[in-house]
Design goal:
Four copies of one chain form a homotetramer. Chain A is an alpha/beta fold and 350 residues long. Chain A has two domains: 157 residues, Rossmann fold (3-Layer(aba) Sandwich); 178 residues, Dihydrodipicolinate Reductase, domain 2, CATH 3.30.360.10. Chain A is 29% helix and 22% strand. Chain A has 13 helices and 13 strands. The first copy, chain A, has a six-stranded mixed beta sheet. In chain A, helix 5 links the parallel strand 4 and strand 5. The longest helix of chain A has 17 residues. Chain A is globular, with a radius of gyration of 19 Å. Chains A and B meet through strand 6, strand 9 and strand 10 of A and strand 6, strand 9 and strand 10 of B.
Chain lengths: 350, 350, 350, 350
Amino acid sequence: MEKIKVGVLGATGSVGQRFIQLLENHPFFTVTHLAASEKSAGKTYGEVMKSRWKISSDIPAYAKDIVITLPKPTATKGVQLVFSGLDSSIAGEVEAEYAQNDVIVISNSKNHRMDPHVPLMSAEVNSEHLEVLKSQKTSGKIITNSNCTIMGVTISLKPLHDKYGIESVMLFSMQAISGAGYPGVPTMDILGNVVPYISGEEDKAEIEPQKCLGTVENGQIKSASFAISAHCNRVPVFDGHTVCVSVKFKKKPSKEEILKTWKEFSGEPQKLDLPLAPKQPIVYREEDDRPQPRLDLDTGRGMATVVGRLREDSILDWKWVVLSHNTIRGAAGAAVLNAELLYKKGLIPS
Amino acid sequence: MEKIKVGVLGATGSVGQRFIQLLENHPFFTVTHLAASEKSAGKTYGEVMKSRWKISSDIPAYAKDIVITLPKPTATKGVQLVFSGLDSSIAGEVEAEYAQNDVIVISNSKNHRMDPHVPLMSAEVNSEHLEVLKSQKTSGKIITNSNCTIMGVTISLKPLHDKYGIESVMLFSMQAISGAGYPGVPTMDILGNVVPYISGEEDKAEIEPQKCLGTVENGQIKSASFAISAHCNRVPVFDGHTVCVSVKFKKKPSKEEILKTWKEFSGEPQKLDLPLAPKQPIVYREEDDRPQPRLDLDTGRGMATVVGRLREDSILDWKWVVLSHNTIRGAAGAAVLNAELLYKKGLIPS
Amino acid sequence: MEKIKVGVLGATGSVGQRFIQLLENHPFFTVTHLAASEKSAGKTYGEVMKSRWKISSDIPAYAKDIVITLPKPTATKGVQLVFSGLDSSIAGEVEAEYAQNDVIVISNSKNHRMDPHVPLMSAEVNSEHLEVLKSQKTSGKIITNSNCTIMGVTISLKPLHDKYGIESVMLFSMQAISGAGYPGVPTMDILGNVVPYISGEEDKAEIEPQKCLGTVENGQIKSASFAISAHCNRVPVFDGHTVCVSVKFKKKPSKEEILKTWKEFSGEPQKLDLPLAPKQPIVYREEDDRPQPRLDLDTGRGMATVVGRLREDSILDWKWVVLSHNTIRGAAGAAVLNAELLYKKGLIPS
Amino acid sequence: MEKIKVGVLGATGSVGQRFIQLLENHPFFTVTHLAASEKSAGKTYGEVMKSRWKISSDIPAYAKDIVITLPKPTATKGVQLVFSGLDSSIAGEVEAEYAQNDVIVISNSKNHRMDPHVPLMSAEVNSEHLEVLKSQKTSGKIITNSNCTIMGVTISLKPLHDKYGIESVMLFSMQAISGAGYPGVPTMDILGNVVPYISGEEDKAEIEPQKCLGTVENGQIKSASFAISAHCNRVPVFDGHTVCVSVKFKKKPSKEEILKTWKEFSGEPQKLDLPLAPKQPIVYREEDDRPQPRLDLDTGRGMATVVGRLREDSILDWKWVVLSHNTIRGAAGAAVLNAELLYKKGLIPS
């Protein structure tokens, strides 16, 4: 079976680098084009990234010799699908242009996330939202994934919401610096420090989970109706967002019911045995002091959601801690998983 | 006026070191005795602390030549008051023994905190709780201060509680490593990491503020009746606990009312112009991204509570961020301020 | 071919954990015994290590159910070889006792390192030193590996010493906190700080490379005769020792000669294709700012020595930077490689 | 006596911020002008710096309302002296222009440092170099201070060079991130990491100390003739450069002679009792593991050089560790001290 030809838009950024890493030797996709800004266009990826590659393994050989183009459909002719890690300042238009030119756009950017015709997808959570693709008027389609901060939170909520109904969620994040890209956070701001503010983050965290857990009605996604309050913080951690959540349910489950629900949770990626799917989407740690970024980040090759410290909440019902890898599960990995799902469901036209 | 002779119990620990620093050239108190465990007893403080002094200024000259004793009233004869930074494994008994021997005990340990006859005092917040000292049956009296985590939170709640009534509080802490003492947290556990658990901390955080904000009834302190839910986390910050709080009020104030209430808040330490009292107990920062440990920790010489990011909460009423210096305002400084208050109110018998 | 039955002494420590990780599914060795101190003896490894396992992957399944014994030959009956990560306070005697009881001891401890009858071995560097095993009077034999700090340095010097003769070496290390074990370095000592001192480290660094690069004479190892001056420093890095070296040669090579020598360097582990041998023992990075722990630590699965910044020295001849993984190449990995070499050379009696 | 009117060029940068802090309530100088780039010009300092002030105390009140100008003599009319923390891309020309317009320039930039007519001054070390000011042809004069990395090293060498003659110096630095300014080092590059390279730093470190320790001959400064080899490294420390040095002398002193020489060392700033002069320019710490940034940085209010670990070197003669505060003693503080010296010596024309 021939592989799908794909491009990576925003290939030099943090998320772009993860795309390139995760797509190395991918069974479904072959990267033929890498696109970035004018500064990089015309040079090989290896040349441009020599001092900018920030993942602790070498640049994959396949990518080194690809000559970077601009992120335009005319410049990346032949690709059937693009992964977009573009900056939100340009992602909206560029992605729309690709969709208008028959290309599937798997986007990690925020621009189209809240469009009711665009799935805000986490493949285990809401693959049924793909139905709304039909209502997109372009020949290509846009699929987004949620913000890194709420990715793991939403996964931990999904099976509980289905059974018990979420009524409200307080969430407090401690977010890794890689979430701000490169150069991103200046060391003088975060070394031995915490910053209780991340521009725009709380806004996203308070609306995206409801869309992920929403329903399809008349070809549009209708967000679930619970309330979220978010406190977002930056901490001196390299990768891995840790989120403390307190949750009120419509019908309060027991501790055993919650643990059993998480343990048994499995989605379409697991059923279809997608290449990047973690075997166990939600891994619960029994230890008092887990999850922790340093010890649990690589669970399921960075694709699992690690949960711990389930205990009663004296104001809402239950509270727990969620960890997910912000540049893998929370960004590039989630996007690749979405693309794998489309592929297996035959939704990528050839 | 002659100075009060005081001792420091647990003088070699983190809190003990801060006591020694804060008591240098103190106008009311003169340190005559330093007590610690058997390992240190019999040696001079300077000798013992050569490689254990962890504050970035030299050991005060006055302390260097004091020969350390055991923490027993018979070993520290002549002291009228002791500051206790003892480990909780022994603080309960030792402090009681001092109180039985006519000595005022200003304790930072948790052992007697929840005794309804013992003030859990933050001098700006509840100096009227000193009234219950009369109900203590010993000749000496015990006064405690609250846990470092909730110190600033309680101060930020106090004037609002008085006017608007607290109904519930969600709190989420990011706590400095100095809170665990020395050697305390192993570097392997926290470098580039966060640990979403601190043993015993959430239990304390969920009951101490209510006692601080309680009322005196029949010679006992009766805790206020609101609910608290706490998530406590350790982060790689040296000094300074940052706490995100969401609060529901009995009567919801406006943003302006809250800011005005904080600005105008002042307590007995300010009225009596106590040496360690911050001029402004609550300092509100207007910037989007404050307070931060690195930039705001020294506000009011580490004795002020720094607040920022006041904004509406979509589940409770309001949310904000509180920073206080955990080993100064949250421990030794709060204790010294309590002692200063006793002194000025004539409650230290000579 | 049947696997060699091995034990790990000091199995609960940092080096012990690495042994257990590296020996999972090993083609030559099967771990039958784990030994540690009295506190742990009698319990299963999984039980003891629940909150002490500090590697970011789970405890290997094979180890979890092994019941820990004391480190005594009578307690670990049946093992043909032991890997020792014992604390130096007891390693000397315990290892000797094993050697007297027919067991091969592969030790990472310092106690026997400077004994002229004991190889101080880095398998690529001085496998010919195994010859002195014959002169050990015990039925079992002891083989040690060098200190983590000088491991990579010695490898980078080896092929140059052979061709050009080392005359003197200045070395300045920036050492990771994992080198001090667990709990090891208190966070209060190293967060946002450097400590220009590591007890005993400079002494070892100034004599071990000469023994590694020495010759066998009359059944004993005679150290090479060049001088070393070492400055050893602790820095807030998790894993990976970075060492700056300045070197004077007997016959000064050109830059090209040095680079070519490193590139072509290969030792017996590569010839014998040992399981843990890195394909390229010395990897030179051309970038200005490499090697760095974060980016280069996993080169050759942590078994390669990464070198960079080769440039002329205005006082000695040449200077460069060396990085090696202190708990893999500098400790457990070097030891396992030594054991693999013995195995392939038929030096482990069955 | 009227205060000298001064300006700060590059007032918004890291060094500029320190200037503004150190000049608050200065007995000799009053800041009348602050200059920065076009982005800031025309706005008040308080407005521009709201989110860019990175020192952990508030912006001094005096500076908040000063309207920033461009760094041009016509824009800062009336100043008799400027402190320059300008970026080297423009410092050369701007400083020369000021000197041509009767203004004394106290520069922290590198541009004019190696000009034989310009003192590269550390006030305790080479105040006699002021003699070459006469040979500068402009009406204003330029005085520079050395690079932060070698500031403390040079001070520790100065009295030894005078008595015993330096023959060669190996130096190895571990430099704080504040040395790179703001935003400076991206967190992704340095968190839990070290970078063994700082662009241009080794070049400066290998020539500046010799100029500082040089002699005036025919109205020019002639550098001392010893050799230096430098390894410069970036570490995750906020403030404070730690440097390990190994030194060969023309005539090897004893340990006691070195310690005595350091203890007795005192320069013109001490004789003239300059406001910013540390009482003891060189402070030796006896502890095994000092100096350390966290514990020793504030010695002499950041103006002292802290030395420790003096021991014999097996290749050169002696080795030790030097710490100095890179943005105070190594930059703004050194510059202000130079200006204070000029003032007291009557070298600032009114």
